[in-house]
Design goal:
The protein is α/β, with parallel strands linked by helices and 515 residues long. It is 35% helix and 16% strand.
Length: 515
């Protein structure tokens, strides 16, 4: 049995930044099911949005966020995040993170879809990777932080594991830690904690085409939901409009929105600049609008992609600001100075997730959440570009500020039982693989950018059958990350479908043709 003051599930920006602060107050254990640097943060190309200089202002940032969220943002939370963005950026820089600057030393700001001004801090086109590397270096050097790599969080420990009946309506549910699977040995360990931060990232892998890494299987949302935490807004799945079109590749390579901010133009196969027909902001409209426009163009023509025209961007500018994308284009024999880049939408970000308050608290006592697995009220029905890393920074700090004040009042639960395996039969990978393939097809074909009542009902019926089959296998088979991930992804699919059916109006990222 392992014990700690703070348990952090996930090693992205939210988890790492929380850990660095919390380690000054107690012992921190970070668990991650892959290598410590593998997270959605690592793949964030764009940057972090914050108003730094005239003519930009915090109020403009607030209004852009509210407009993009299509009326469903919590304005109090939006203002809190924007207001606190400046001190969080300063802290990030103090930890060693770097951002591109002009010759005069000012931030070299980018503009992305939905932003009325240039306000995105970035480091080339691999901002997330730059931040991740710097934070991991500090985390590994801290004597109060232990990182357990290749450990899979199976379930949160609550009163349920003490033999008490827990329902979704049960008041006062408490979190005592988590059962974690040592992937290398196959053994399950009990990890008790006084405070638990869920920072396990998103769930893009429930779709066939996604920019998310293979680890983005919705584990944090699913296990929190099973523990009876409140979950909301799961119908709002953001599809990034411009993922590099290359069939069979998982994950899809992201073409950052900053390229459109630098002058990139979306064109159909006939070479037409079609975005002005859909929105006056053209290629710089918010992602929900651009993704639907591209999908509509593809349906009209029967094509599988459209083009991103970057020929108007200076060759030097492209090389300096987008070296990762340039390298990928060269790999595919595409010269952005002369050739159009084939792109198509891909599942990218979940605006919904575990419900939290302004302190990052979930509906379960001693359980906090931050990052993509949480829904804070910032994004509403559609996330404004480059607000996600900012949200992770602000709410990990909010969670730290609140939880460290509660630490002395919380004691480790003594009567938590060890994990009871009850599983002896080896699983069959072919069943897992086929079930996962079927889930991805269901979600992509029926619960994608455009939805309908019939598609959603069909998705619900088929997902229910997958759920019943998988739960039966989960109870019988030897525990592996693969069966746990499949179980979690089916949970996520169910939550998206249920929320989409319940949403009777079209808002932001949710568009039902029958509404």
């Amino acid at each position: 049995m392992l014990k700690t003051d703070f348990l952090v599930i996930g090693s992205g920006l939210a988890g790492l930044s929380f850990a660095l602060n919390a380690a000054e107050y107690g012992k921190v254990i970070i668990i991650t099911k892959a290598a410590e640097e593998e997270s959605n943060t690592k793949y964030a190309q764009g940057g972090i949005a914050t108003a730094t200089s005239f003519p930009d202002t915090d109020e403009k940032h607030v209004q852009d966020t509210l407009i993009c969220g299509d009326g469903l943002c919590n304005e109090k939370i939006v203002r809190l995040v924007v207001e606190k963005s400046h001190e969080r950026i300063k802290e990030l820089i103090s930890w060693g993170a770097e951002f591109d600057r002009t010759a005069s030393g000012e931030f070299d700001l980018a503009r992305e879809g939905g932003h009325s001004e240039k306000r995105v801090l970035h480091y080339k086109d691999f901002t997330g990777l730059e931040i991740e590397r710097k934070l991991i270096t500090k985390v590994n050097a801290h004597p109060n932080i232990e990182v357990l790599t290749h450990y899979f969080a199976i379930d949160l420990i609550t009163q349920h594991h003490l033999g008490k009946e827990v329902k979704r309506s049960t008041p006062g549910i408490e979190c005592y830690g988590a059962y974690i699977l040592d992937i290398k040995t196959g053994k399950v360990k009990t990890l008790l904690s006084r405070i638990t931060l869920m920072a396990a990232g998103g769930a893009g892998q429930v779709y066939k085409n996604t920019t998310n890494p293979v680890i983005a299987t919705g584990d944090g949302i699913a296990m929190s939901y099973r523990a009876m935490a409140k979950v909301n807004n799961m119908e709002f799945v953001q599809f990034h409009p411009t993922a590099l079109f290359k069939p069979g590749v998982n994950p899809s390579f992201l073409i950052t929105e900053a390229i459109r901010g630098a002058g990139g133009i979306l064109r159909n196969k006939a070479g037409k600049d079609f975005m002005p027909e859909y929105d006056k902001r053209a290629s710089l409209a918010p992602r929900d609008i651009v993704a639907r426009a591209i999908d509509s163009e593809m349906k009209k023509s029967g094509d599988e992609f459209v083009y991103l025209d970057c020929t108007g961007i200076l060759k030097k500018t492209f090389k300096e600001h987008f070296p990762t994308i340039l390298a990928k284009c060269k790999e595919m024999s595409i010269n952005p100075a002369k050739d159009y880049i084939p792109v198509a939408p891909a599942a990218h970000y979940f605006c919904g997730g575990i419900v939290t308050d302004e302190h990052g608290r979930t509906s379960i006592t001693n359980l906090y959440a931050a990052g993509e697995c949480a829904t804070t009220g910032l994004h509403g029905a559609n996330r404004l570009a480059s607000n996600s890393l900012l949200e992770a920074l602000v709410f990990s700090n909010q969670a730290f500020q609140h939880s460290c004040k509660q630490l002395d009042k919380i004691h480790l639960k003594k009567e938590v039982p060890e994990w009871e395996p009850g599983r002896k039969v080896p699983g069959e990978m072919v069943l897992i693989t086929q079930s996962l393939k079927e889930l991805k097809e269901i979600m992509t074909n029926y619960v994608g950018i455009f939805r309908s009542d019939m598609r959603l009902q069909r998705a619900q019926n088929r997902t229910r059958l997958l759920y019943e089959e998988t739960e039966e296998l989960y109870q019988k088979w030897v525990l592996t990350p693969q069966i746990c991930e499949l179980r979690n992804m089916i949970n996520i699919g169910y939550l998206i479908i249920k929320a989409a059916i319940a949403r009777s109006e079209n808002r932001g990222l949710h568009f039902n043709v029958d509404n």
